[in-house]
Design a protein that fits this description.
The structure is a single chain. The protein is mainly β. The chain has one domain. It has strands spanning 23-24, 28-29, 36-37, 48-49. A two-stranded antiparallel sheet has the order 1-2. It has a two-stranded antiparallel ribbon with strand order 3-4. It is globular.
């Protein structure tokens, strides 16, 4: 999945994964959009941010 990095944060989304390319200071997500998977998850332990990309 190709996601662009924006200058502004996605409102109402908190991200604490500082090793992610889209992490912004203050726990903000700077991805243009996010995708959470899998579609059949039944609790938070089963979810995963598919947008995650490690910082380079």
């Amino acid at each position: 999945m190709r996601v662009e990095k924006d200058d502004s944060a996605i409102s109402r989304v908190k991200c604490v994964v500082s090793s992610c390319r889209y992490y912004g200071h203050g726990d903000h997500c700077l991805a243009s959009h996010i995708e959470i998977q899998p579609p059949d998850a039944s609790d938070t332990e089963e979810t995963d941010c598919a947008t995650f990309s490690p910082k380079r």
